[in-house]
Design brief:
Elements: E1 2-7, H1 11-20, E2 28-34, H2 37-46, E3 51-55, H3 63-73, E4 78-83, H4 88-92, E5 99-104, H5 109-143, H6 147-160, H7 165-174, E6 183-191, H8 202-226, E7 229-234, E8 238-245, H9 249-270, E9 274-278, H10 288-300, H11 302-305, E10 310-312, H12 325-337, H13 340-356, H14 361-380, H15 387-399, H16 406-427, H17 431-446, H18 454-461, H19 465-476, H20 480-498, H21 503-509, H22 515-526, H23 530-538
Parallel strand pairs: 1-2, 1-3, 3-4, 4-5, 9-10
Antiparallel strand pairs: 6-8, 6-9, 7-8
Helix pairs in contact: 2-3, 5-8, 6-7, 8-9, 12-13, 12-14, 12-16, 13-16, 14-15, 14-16, 15-16, 17-19, 20-23
Length: 540
């Protein structure tokens, strides 16, 4: 039987719904009807309710406030909201309160029966989940009372070297576990759903310990049945296996097969994917910590390669060197030449290189930041404006490090590259813009020449000074001298930050013949003298 509460401030609406639905035939009971959210909130405190059907606009406490109250205090209750046409967009905001359905007034009896049928299915699913969790909780509580906990803690201490190795060996010997094999290795299992690659709320954190117990039971049964070693729990969420035997090709293959069998069995039993890393072989118990570290590092590749991994570190090739310079050059040339195919090929090549190199998260993020910088430099080379793209690049520099997986982070960089490509392609689409781009590239290549002038640029482009001034202003928003000065000052900042050159040496390098005029120009642009700027930056 499904218990339903009706909430609406219009008595005619409540009466119509009560009378036009055959509740008994739907295996439902209308346990109450309330005229506002406050009455409904008081009602559920003393009466069990499965489904709440509520209007939006009501006195004292409206449907949104009621949904908020139920979400925080009775999350198992399924909520259906009625709303008028003008309230519908407002009602959809209630998604944050786990509202399951929105119905636009007026509601027909047929529509309501159909929705109630769907809500019954949701209640059934929640009841099953609750029963599963209660069963797992009881089993878990029983487990924590027996000797398996002591065994797991003793093996965890041995593998992690958190206390004297001999004491751990003595404790295990008292349990009938003797570390007298010729070789050992450790496998680490971690459930993808509860890992750092997914958002984990409080409910999932509680459930993870229970699911880890299921994983432990599966691993323990399979490993014990094969006589290959011992399964143990590590903390609340991870399960490990201490393999013991001869370091030979046959047993190495068997350990791999055992781990794969555990993964498949867990997926079959509870529908959760598990990643596993298998550390290398060691000769002595004192060295187990190294095998465990290798297994953990293999699990860490989940950021780069996704979930459901099975990585045997002894089968992995040596780390390849990672160089993206050629691909970066191909990408920037593609952007400048309007060749989207070359850009996409370079992006795909870099993604593959990063994955093949088994880069860790920090190294992968550095590579993504390089891609962002090079794409941004292409935009800088064709315009002095477009601050939105420069600002976006700076935001993305940090954002790529916050993503849960490499694929998500790479997509951010890839989208930015495509946006830069489109903007550059648009900028280069007319002859005037192309000439402005060529002029900016010429200035960037010759800014250090003291005699560089407008006439030099016009001779290079073979156009008149007046025509050049027009197209250059349209493209950059400024004059030739303003752009040249900005380029020289950018280079000055770079030299002041990264070298210990004298001011007069820097002045000469960036195209100023008069050091005094150089200092005046720099202060006018930055508000600081070159010496003040260098002192400030070099002290950071």
């Amino acid at each position: 039987m499904y218990r339903i509460l009706l909430v609406d401030d219009e008595i005619l609406v409540r009466d119509a719904i009560k009378e036009n639905i055959d509740w008994k035939s739907m295996d439902c009971e209308l346990v109450g009807d309330c005229e506002n959210g406050k009455q409904a909130a008081d009602f559920v405190k003393t009466h069990p309710v499965d489904i709440v059907l509520t209007d939006i606009l009501m006195p004292y406490m409206d449907g949104m406030e009621l949904s908020h109250f139920l979400h925080d205090n009775y999350p198992e209750i399924v909520i259906v909201i009625f709303s008028g046409f003008g309230e519908f967009e407002y009602a959809k905001k209630a998604i944050q309160y786990n509202v399951s359905e929105y119905m636009l007034k007026p509601v027909t009896a047929m529509e309501l029966r159909e929705v109630i049928g769907k809500m019954k299915e949701k209640v059934d699913q929640q009841r099953k989940e609750k029963e599963k969790l209660e069963s797992l909780t009881k089993t878990s509580q029983d487990y924590h009372k027996n000797a398996l906990v002591i065994r797991s803690k003793a093996i965890e201490a041995l593998v992690g070297c958190t206390r004297d190795v001999q004491k751990s060996l003595d404790e295990l010997a008292k349990m009938g576990i003797y570390m007298d094999s010729s070789s050992y290795r450790v496998a680490v299992f971690d459930m993808d759903l509860f890992s750092e690659i997914h958002e984990i709320d409080m409910e999932k954190r509680q459930e993870s310990a229970l699911m880890a117990f299921v994983l432990f039971n599966v691993a323990d049964e399979i490993v014990t049945g094969r006589g290959a070693g011992i399964a143990y729990q590590e903390g609340n969420n991870r399960v490990c296996i201490l393999f013991m035997g001869d370091h030979c090709r046959g047993f190495s293959q068997e350990t791999h097969e055992i781990c794969e069998e555990i993964q498949n069995k867990v997926k079959e039993v509870i529908g959760i994917e598990v990643s596993a890393g298998i550390g290398g072989w060691v000769k002595n118990p004192e060295e187990l910590i190294h095998s465990h570290e290798q297994a953990e590092n293999a699990i860490g590749l989940r950021y780069l390669l996704g979930g459901n991994l099975l990585i045997d570190t002894e089968e992995q090739k040596e780390e390849r060197s990672l160089s993206l310079q050629q691909s970066l050059n191909e990408m920037t040339n593609g952007i400048r030449n309007g060749n989207l195919q070359a850009v996409n090929h370079a992006l795909s090549d870099m993604k593959e290189k990063i994955k093949n190199a088994r880069a860790d998260k920090s190294q992968a993020c550095v590579c993504l930041q390089m891609i962002l910088r090079h794409a941004g430099s292409c935009w800088e080379s064709v315009t002095s404006g477009g601050e939105d793209l420069f600002h976006k690049r700076e935001l993305l520099m940090g954002k790529v490090t916050e993503q849960k997986t490499f694929d998500e982070a790479f997509l951010l960089a890839e989208n930015y590259v495509h946006e830069v490509f489109e903007r550059c392609f648009s900028m280069n689409s007319s002859s005037g813009q192309k000439q402005a781009v060529l002029a900016m590239e010429y200035i960037r290549a010759h800014y250090m020449e003291q005699e560089l002038s407008l006439n030099d640029i016009c001779s290079y482009l073979n156009i008149s000074t007046s025509h050049f001034s027009t197209i250059f202003k349209e493209a950059t928003g400024g004059t030739f001298l303003e752009f040249l000065s900005r380029i020289r000052m950018e280079k000055t900042k770079e030299l002041l930050e990264q070298t210990t050159l004298k001011n007069y040496e820097i002045a000469e390098m960036v195209g100023f013949s008069d050091p005094h005029y150089f200092s005046i120009s720099f202060k006018k642009m930055t508000g600081k003298t070159p010496t003040e700027y260098a002192r400030e930056k070099r002290s950071v």
